[in-house]
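Thread: Modeling a multi-component assembly for a lab meeting

Hi all, long-time lurker, first post. My supervisor asked me to bring a structural picture of a complex we are working on to next week's group meeting, and I have zero experience with this. I have the sequence lines for every component (522 residues in total). Could someone generate the structure of the whole assembly? Inputs are pasted exactly as I received them:
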Amino acid sequence: MMIEVRALDVRFGSVHAVRDVSFAVAAGESFGLVGESGSGKSTVLRTLAGLAADWTGYMAMDGQPLGRRRSRAFFRRVQMVFQDPYGSLHPRQTVDRILAEPLAVHGIPDGESRIRRALEEVALPRAVRFRYPHQLSGGQRQRVAIARALIADPTVLLLDEPTSALDVSVQAEVLNLLADLRAARQLTCILVSHNLAVVAHLCGRLAVMQGGRIVETLETAALRAGKAQHPHTRELVALSRDLEE
Amino acid sequence: MTPLVEIRDLHVEFPGPSGPVPAVRGISLTMGREKLGIVGESGSGKSVTGRALMRLLPRQARIRAAALRFDGVDVATAAPATMRKLRGARMGLILQDPKFSLNPVMRVGNQIAEAWAAHRKGGAQEARDAAFALLEQVLIRDPKRVYDAYPHQLSGGMGQRVMIAMMLAPDPDLLIADEPTSALDATVQAEILRLMDRLVSERGMGLILISHDLPLVARFCDRVAVMYAGRVLEELPASELHHARHPYTRGLLECLPRLDRAVPRLPTLARDPTWLG
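Re: Modeling a multi-component assembly
Sure thing. I ran the full set together rather than chain by chain. Output:
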């Protein structure tokens, strides 16, 4: 298993945000976490990434248990893409500088050629390299965020609502890009989203969260075939289907 | 009969560093007391159109139209005092996030009562009673608790119900809802849209629902206008959305990932420069 989470509990002061969450993701697999706001889906992802301190339970990556503090190697192998590409890119840094940062942090050589390759990989024109985030469209900014995540050659990609802030036509482009990159680099992915159809598109298996708990884990094929068991999953399916008719 | 809204050849421009930037480029829409959806992606001009009708655009915006009328009143040239009498009283506006539309330091019940009192004649007690009645109409189970709550104590869905109650207080003829449910969860979104749908139908009001979500708009409106780059590319009955002819409308529908079947690769939109006309 590339990622293993067992009996994870996360608290923020008196708020018990994640309760007894367990799941495992195989190497090269894409796993989805679906739920409404406050269900704890993003907290699970952030805790896995080392961005939440107050947790109990067991988490492991590639067989190695994860502690409170993560090693530099962990931060190279696991990369994250956030919802709002404007909020996650430094407004006063050029794309070049943004992409150079992970290389500097991890002491990766060949900056010049890596940055050029990273921009090509996410299909951004060369001219973008010396622009600032505010000079780019929302879709271009999310491509920069994806390029930044991939430039250090990670094995695991954590995606937190990566297309929710984008127009649907741009969402389709970014989802296609993510599917291509995942196949080319054999990435293990965890995708968090409130959009069931987006998760089903990218992931083979998914867990539905409500009130901090996983209420159901199932294969996407079973979900599509209408085999969801839990009432909350069925409700989300019904709402999503209602708009597809 | 005078249509409720009549827009003919509306243009809106904003000054830019290298000349005026057009946001709306010659759109025409006419509607009665029905539910009209305006759909488009960011930058298509859908919100600017809604705001132009209420004349709520920034000062530097330049408006030009053969007709921009609300119930026969020429919005483009009306005196500020006339516009003040129209806004709120006859046209209500609901925006995306109630957190930014409500006064954060005033109890929400008092905000509804204030909206009522500003447009109707009546004392403080009457305004209070009206606010309670409105909270009940937007299906708030515990109106007493919500009346005394501050906006930060309410969920997004509850806040949006309060906004709807406040906009309905003066009994307007038209409600303009600009992405009213985009910040809400899917389950809450459906509740809010059903609620708006019912109240608008019961009161015989007109509704302009502005959204980026084409399937959602089609589900709740009678008619849909699809906007792109400041123009209406296609206008059709919501029930016929799936027979949409314009490649842009078709593209918007086809690029959505679906739950009912797996699509190996999402079709992307090839934007045709001729759409810009």
